[in-house]
C-alpha cells in the first residue's frame, strides 16, 4: 500500500492562505464590477438585433422594389426611345403639311390675282416658281421626304428640285410638280396615321409594364407586412 500513501498527500489540497483569499476577493470584485457593463452591452445588442430583425422585411421590400423598378425601366427604355422618335417625326411631318398647305394657298391666291389682272403668262409662271422655290428653301419638303422615303429621298426629290431651280413655263411642268407635291403630302399623312397607330400600341405596352410593376410592388409590400407581423408575434412569444 505504499503507492496509496504516495497518492494521498498529492490529493490533499493545502488550506488557502490569506494572500490567496485576498486575490480571490479582488477577482470576484472585478467580475462584479464588469457584469453591469457587459449586461448593458448585451441588452443593447439584443435590442438592436431585434429591431433589425423586425425592420428587415421593410428593408428587403425597399431593395427588392428598387431592383424590380430598375429591371422594368430597362425593359421600357427601348419602347420609350421608339415613342420619342415617332413623336419627333410626326411633329416634323405635321409642320411640313401645315407649311405646304399655307404656301399652296398663297400660291393659288397669287395665281387668281394674276389671272384677274390679265398679267403676262411668263409672269404667272415666275410667281409660281418663286412660291415653290421658297417652299424648297425652307427645307420642310426635304425633311418630309427624308422621313417618308428614308432610303431614297434624295433621288426622289432631285428631279423636283432641279425643275424648280431651272424654272418652267409650261402647264405640263406645273401639273407634274403639283402631282409630286400632292403625293408627298399624301404619303406624309399616311405616315402620320401609321405612326399614331404605332404610338397607341407602344402606349398600351407601357401601360402593361406599369400594371405589372405595380402588382409586383404591391406583392412585395404585402409580403413585407406579413413577415413583419410574423416576426413581431414570434418575438412576443419568445419574450414570455
Q: How does this structure look, described?
A:
The relative contact order is 0.10. This protein has one domain (49-239). Helix 2 packs antiparallel against helix 6. The protein contains six helices and no strands. It has 240 residues and is mostly helical. It has helices at 2-11, 18-116, 121-138, 140-148, 153-166, 171-239.
Provide a count of the helices. Answer: 6
First-residue to last-residue Cα separation? 60 Å
Shape designation: rod-shaped
Number of DSSP E strands = 0
> Which structural class should the secondary elements be placed in?
mainly alpha
Main beta-sheet strand count, sense and barrel state: none
H-E string = HHHHHH
Low-confidence stretches: 1-8
Strand content: under 5%
Name a few traits of the molecule:
240 residues; mainly alpha; 6 helices
Question: In a nutshell, what does this entry contain?
Answer:
By secondary structure, this protein is mainly α.
Secondary structure: elements and pairs:
Layout: H1 2-11, H2 18-116, H3 121-138, H4 140-148, H5 153-166, H6 171-239
Helix pairs in contact: 2-3, 2-4, 2-6, 4-5, 4-6
